Amino acid sequence: MEIRIVTPAAKGERKGNRVTALRWAGHLRALGHRVRIAGDWKGEPCDLLVALHARRSHAAAEAFRAAHPWKPLVVALTGTDLYLDLPGSAEARRSLALATRLVVLQPLAMRCLPEPARAKARVVYQSARPVPAPPPANGAFPICLLAHLRPVKDTSVAPAALRLLSPGSRVRLLHLGAALDEESAARARAAAEAEPRYRWLGERPRREALRVLAGSRLLLVTSLLEGGANVVTEAIAAGVPVLSTRIDGSVGLLGEDYPGYFPVGDAPALAALLARAEAEPGFLAELRGRVASLAPLVDPRGERERWRGLLEELRGDWARRAPEKAGGR
């Protein structure tokens, strides 16, 4: 098949949507298909369009469906789609109606979909491969936060929590992520000046970010919402425990009873978890064991097989609905 993936994340960006599009393209090529990634669809020949982001890729989905009423269209739903856009965006809801299939990244996302849309939704867990860990930090308790400085990531909670730790705490936080404006950069620099256990390194290459993750005792996820964060998947692959806000995007991956959650925006609760993880080896081992048990979920072979199964479904639908068009690749 000739497949086109449309994503609002531009070439060269390190945001989650671009990472997802690149990884999916790799899986689809490994399955024998020709794949291109673009920011829009302008009528280029393809057998399948994958629109990553229901609202922001709506124009591409609408144009493709108008030009090809019978060809398969997959709409992949981000956290912004699920938890912000669907209630108020007619374009996002229209994309759901146009789609042949919907892709979500964790099962709790189904709860956000209108009842008629759930039957055509499929869960495709994101996958990751671990990278070698650097040598352990001498005497420190390194943790990391891999998130751009966007309001939805609520990254200011992390340094606020560090300020509540005891003076003797060995916790050291490395924060990697781009500032999208000077105001957010200034806040991050001010937080680093006020709390020496916090360092903001700005945007870094993806491989460096993964090495920082691999060398950390904990990953922090402070987001207000996530569709199913790449970074949680990457932490599972690396065997690094996660402390996360209790949001569906994390609960759908880590499990309802995972012991490392804290309420959104609650710096004292995060500080209490950090102090416990540092002081109680048993608690840290429990977190590590729970994450290790999830490793099969993020195996790249599983993600590829889910895409294989989805494509087989789409071929069957296409053959039933438009037999005269089913003789293509």
How are the SSEs ordered, and which strands pair?
Blueprint lengths: L1 E5 L9 H15 L3 E5 L9 E5 L5 H10 L5 E4 L2 H10 L1 H9 L2 E4 L10 H4 L2 E3 L17 E6 L10 H6 L8 E6 L5 H13 L3 E5 L3 H9 L3 E4 L8 H9 L3 E4 L2 H7 L6 E2 L4 H13 L1 H13 L6 H22 L8
Parallel strand pairs: 1-2, 1-3, 3-4, 4-5, 5-6, 7-8, 7-10, 8-9, 10-11, 11-12
Helix pairs in contact: 1-13, 2-4, 11-12
Give a quick summary of the entry.
The chain has 329 residues and is an alpha/beta fold. The protein has helices at residues 16-30, 58-67, 79-88, 90-98, 115-118, 157-162, 182-194, 206-214, 230-238, 248-254, 267-279, 281-293, 300-321; strands spanning 2-6, 34-38, 48-52, 73-76, 101-104, 121-123, 141-146, 171-176, 198-202, 218-221, 242-245, 261-262.
Task: Describe the 3D structure.
- With about 325 residues, this protein is of the alpha/beta class.
- The protein has 2 domains: about 1-125 and about 300-325, Glycogen Phosphorylase B (Rossmann fold), CATH 3.40.50; about 140-300, 3-Layer(aba) Sandwich (Rossmann fold).
- Helices cover about 45% and strands about 15% of the residues.
- Strands 2-1-3-4-5-6 form a 6-stranded parallel sheet, with helices on both faces. A 6-stranded parallel sheet has the order 9-8-7-10-11-12, with helices on both faces.
- The chain is elongated, with a radius of gyration of 21 Å.
